[in-house]
Design brief:
The complex is a heterodimer of chains A (497) and B (479). By secondary structure, chain A is mainly alpha-helical. Chain A is 74% helix and 3% strand. Chain A has a domain of 214 residues. Chain B has 20 helices and two strands.
């Protein structure tokens, strides 16, 4: 076995075995757990960096395990999967640091970090999946490993959120399974192929392929929180802050969006999808989700709920970029996969800090927090402005490419949707920033001092880091190692197979 | 060097001898049974080796050829089943060693009889022998059900006895009729001589009804939940995981092999329909149960339904029989784990009322994990044996345009998820006040026995190449 075959399983297991070992560590074994967590996360980043370099130089990585005839677990690394794996590896490290600080002294930490690591492994596996059945396997593993995280706090409210989460995701998984089984029945086992794998069937099996596409999108749409399948997401924000951060940035929601990208480009192929008249309806659904999510966000006073609806809206940018034919829109959609992740995780980290440090959960309580927690609020502001699409931040780059892609793809109405969304984004984010920086708090909030925590830096460092990255990804988008350049490379490979 | 066929016979003789000896030495029952399980590994390994290399292994008792003599044989599927039975037997024996430490010495000889009967059932090749083995299994099972001696258990055991004996009688009548009409009970001989003829139809009909009653297929399932829920945990595990699979296996052999020439597609449709109804009814009943063990028992009704639901596919699709056997094995492992876990909960709390287990489950992490892993396989989520079995069946169903079967397989999974997560959610209740709540930590061996079996149920989905190859050795049972 050479390193081309072993690298991918190593990347997968760097977090998986970390999780399994953590389960067996005693609850009180705080130090070894921390060391193990960080070790796993750092190791993973090092491995991912090596992978990144290899894929950039057109190296082909593949490992497989035959489970049964017709069922092969295949891990491959193409430009798209490496993009997603890199995102998840970096955010895992930051979220781990954050979670260690956040969960200080709270019960059941072994259980939490165990499932947390397995959740990240599932995301990684999903990104590296080389065929549909492998994708399905990790998709379901993701559902299972996130459930304990969502209900981690216990109590009626968390359990209810967990039930709703399962109801949506398991039903989605079943629909996806059905779609995949049908597709396999029609076309044999399907590997993800740049440029698509179904063009030979498109002639004779039109309606079947259309039906299967609907099933696949329904199954993935649940996790991607496409309206009206988004109902679980605002409920799931009862989870602890590190979980929400990961859930919204890389794990669950992003897994759905990533799946949509995979299906359109690498199962169907963008040309086939267009010929089957599938792209236009998808674009409409995405647009409705974008506007609906933003409007709902406007009316939420609970900060995490507002952010959750904002996620509903923002994730569909990715779907929208995918659904518009043309490389420019593709770049916009794919780069947003990364950009939305770093922006949203910044916002959720900050929201967690407000709750932990000041006991603030609602937007209406946020008057004057800027002076009390300057670093957190600064990061929050950068994330929010990025979401609105202010140049030169990351969100601006995504929106610019989407806008341009819409015009090039003869779908000018997209511009309308995007500008409406930007306005709404501004309408629900700017008041928060105004309150935080320019208003003085009521006497009560003024008096409440920041709770003393032994490791406060662990809560502040992650959002500051991601905020810096939001600036970098926007301002230095044209430099060789920016997310944008990588997204361009992916789009290039999808359109010229 | 003995013939490989004798290894199959040893798998019957070892438990049989142990059962007799442990009647004589009642206080040593547990040790004897443990020894028997360990010793049986040797002939099992030899049998596996022989079947893996040569296909089917057979043996004529006393050297007489059929139709005069009795023949036993083991092909790949049989060997796979023998191994699953052994594995579950190992887990249950380890578990029961603590569970029955101070009481119920009768468990051990009865369990050994049961095991001997199951092994004999798997390797038997003629209809009358199948009857004998089925009776051995049935009587041991009934006695085990009544083991606690409590009124509820006795009532359930009584009901079970009546159903079981009626089923056996119907089956025996069918055998007699077959013998009268065709002059043989040897399955291989019969499969070539049976022709469409009223006697054949009647015989098959009688046997089918008898077997359905014993296998607790909907709507003949009513005896199962009380019997399985009121037995001691290791017994529930054996009954749910193994005992009811015996009649199913016989029925499958009759329909797919012996009488395959006279079974009509309509008959397949009826039995498949009953299986589908069992999936829906069992799962919905499991969802509304208030007691843990009854929930698991109703889950068995549903899971058994899958096997009958998919039976028509085996007649036409090569993968379907593998799917059914994998599903059967995965269910056996997972269900044993669930019942053993329920036994741990009962040990800890003294009751199994779901609503009051909120403070108990969080304190039994290993048991909770066992439930979760077993649950993954019961639901059929990847990667697990349950998923692999269902996947093979769904793909074959779609291949044969049996959309209904494929849909029911998926819907059954969703319903299973609802009742399984009712148990799992208890572990996350976040309520751990220990004041005034009874809690006895179960012995470690009991917790880990459940966990390891559940782990095997999941593993079956990951390391399935070898089992699938084994199942296909010596000719698939289906044509």
């Amino acid at each position: 076995m050479n390193d081309l075959q072993i690298l991918l399983p190593l990347i997968l297991f760097s977090s998986f075995f970390t999780g399994v070992i953590i389960f067996f560590l005693g609850e009180g074994n705080h130090r070894s757990r921390t060391v193990l967590n960080l070790l796993g996360a750092v190791l993973k980043i090092l491995l991912v960096l090596q992978l990144l370099d290899g894929v950039y130089h057109q190296q082909v990585y593949q490992s497989q395990l035959v489970l049964a005839p017709g069922i092969e677990i295949v891990l491959t690394a193409d430009a798209l999967s490496v993009f997603f794996v890199t995102l998840s590896a970096f955010l895992w490290l930051l979220t781990t640091v954050y979670a260690i600080g956040y969960l200080e002294q709270s019960p059941h930490r072994s259980r939490f970090f165990g499932f947390f690591s397995i959740c990240v492994s599932a995301t990684t596996g999903l990104a590296l999946a080389g065929n549909l059945i492998t994708f399905l396997l990790f998709y379901e593993l993701l559902t299972l490993s996130t459930y304990p995280l969502v209900v981690h706090k216990g109590g009626a409210r968390a359990l209810r959120a967990g039930r709703i989460y399962l109801r949506y995701t398991l039903a989605g998984g079943a629909v996806l399974l059905f779609g995949i089984a049908w597709l396999q029945n029609l076309a044999g086992p399907i590997s993800f192929t740049e440029g698509g794998a179904l063009s030979p069937l498109a002639e004779n099996h039109r309606w079947e392929l259309q039906m299967i596409f609907v099933l696949l999108i329904l199954g993935l749409g649940v996790k991607a929180a496409i309206v009206p399948l988004h109902g679980w997401l605002p409920n799931a924000m009862v989870a602890p802050a590190p979980v929400s951060s990961l859930l919204h940035a890389v794990a669950v929601v992003k897994a759905g969006a990533f799946g949509v990208v995979r299906m359109v480009y690498e199962v169907y192929g963008i040309d086939v999808a267009r010929d089957l008249n599938l792209l236009h309806p998808l674009a409409i659904v995405a647009s409705i989700t974008i506007v609906y999510g933003s409007i709902k966000a406007l009316f939420q006073d609970e900060l995490k709920k507002r952010l959750a609806y904002s996620t509903v809206s923002q994730v569909s940018y990715i779907v929208l970029g995918t659904a518009i034919f043309g490389p420019v829109a593709t770049i916009g959609g794919i780069v947003h996969l990364f950009h939305q992740g770093i922006m949203k995780i910044t916002l959720f980290f900050a929201a967690g800090n407000y709750a932990e440090g000041l006991g603030i959960h609602r937007v209406s309580q946020m008057d004057g927090v800027g002076r009390k927690m300057p670093w957190t609020t600064l990061s929050f502001s950068i994330g929010a402005l990025g979401m609105i699409g202010l140049p030169p931040l990351a969100g601006y780059v995504s929106k610019w490419y989407l806008q341009k892609g819409g015009i090039e793809g003869d779908e000018a109405w997209i511009s309308l949707v995007l500008s409406m969304s930007s306005l709404l984004n501004a309408a629900y984010f700017l008041p928060i920033l105004y309150r935080a920086w320019f208003k003085t708090g009521t006497e009560e909030t003024e008096r409440s001092r920041k709770r003393r925590r032994p490791a406060w830096w662990m809560l502040v460092l992650p959002p500051v880091t991601t905020a810096l990255f939001v600036v970098y990804a926007g301002a230095f988008a044209e430099t060789p190692y920016s997310p944008l350049q990588w997204a361009k490379m992916i789009a290039d490979r999808e359109y010229t197979p | 060097m003995p013939e490989p066929g004798t290894d199959a016979l040893w798998l019957v003789l070892i438990p049989l001898i142990t059962a007799l000896v442990s009647f004589l030495l009642p206080t040593r029952g547990g040790t004897l049974a443990a020894c028997a399980v360990v010793v049986a590994a040797w002939p099992l390994a030899r049998l596996l080796h022989a079947v893996w290399h040569t296909g089917t292994v057979s043996q004529h008792l006393g050297g007489w050829q059929p139709p005069l003599g009795i023949q036993v044989s083991a092909n790949g599927s049989d060997t796979f089943l023998l191994m699953i039975v052994w594995l579950i037997g190992l887990g249950v024996t380890i578990y029961a060693f603590h569970y029955f430490r101070k009481k119920s010495e009768l468990f051990w000889p009865l369990w050994m009889f049961l095991w001997a009967g199951l092994n004999a059932l798997i390797i038997s090749d003629d209809l009358f022998n199948l009857y004998v083995t089925m009776e051995l299994v049935g009587l041991a099972a009934v006695a085990l059900t009544a083991l606690t001696g409590r009124a509820e258990a006795l009532r359930a055991a009584m009901r079970y006895t009546i159903i079981s004996l009626t089923g056996s009688l119907l089956y025996l009548m069918g055998v007699a009729m077959t013998y009268a009409a065709y002059g043989s009970v040897d399955m291989e001989t019969l499969s070539t001589t049976i022709k469409p003829h009223p006697a054949g139809y009647t015989a098959l009909g009688l046997m089918t009804v008898g077997l359905i009653a014993k296998a607790a297929l909907f709507p003949c399932h009513v005896w199962l939940p009380p019997a399985h829920a009121n037995a001691p945990a290791p017994v529930s595990a054996l009954l749910s995981a193994l005992v009811i699979k015996g009649p199913f296996l016989i029925l499958a052999q009759l329909w797919l092999q012996v009488y395959s020439k006279i079974v009509t597609p309509e008959a397949f449709a009826v039995i498949s329909f009953l299986g589908g109804a069992a999936v829906l009814w069992g799962a919905t009943q499991a969802i509304v149960q208030q007691r843990l063990k009854r929930l698991i028992a109703y889950s068995t009704v549903a899971q058994l339904g899958y096997l009958f639901l998919a039976l028509p596919l085996t007649a036409s699709h090569p993968d379907a029989w593998s799917g059914i056997l994998i599903l059967l094995a995965a269910h056996a492992l997972a269900k044993t784990a669930l019942f053993l876990a329920a036994g741990n909960v009962l040990h800890a709390a003294g009751h199994d009322t779901l609503a009051e287990l909120k403070t108990i489950m969080p304190r039994l992490p290993v048991t909770a994990f066992a439930v979760a892993l077993a649950g993954v396989s019961i639901i059929g989520l990847p990667p697990s044996g349950g998923f692999l079995g269902k996947w093979l069946l769904i793909v074959s169903a779609l291949d044969r345009n049996a959309l209904g079967i494929a849909l029911l397989l998926v819907i059954g999974s969703l319903l299973a998820a609802i009742y399984i997560f009712r148990i799992i959610a208890l572990a996350f209740s976040g309520e751990e006040s220990t004041k005034g709540v009874r809690f006895h930590q179960p012995p470690r061996s009991m917790e880990w026995a459940a966990f390891v079996l559940a782990f095997f149920a999941v593993l079956l989905g990951l390391a399935s190449n070898a089992p699938l190859h084994l199942i296909s050795m010596g000719g698939r049972m289906a044509p």
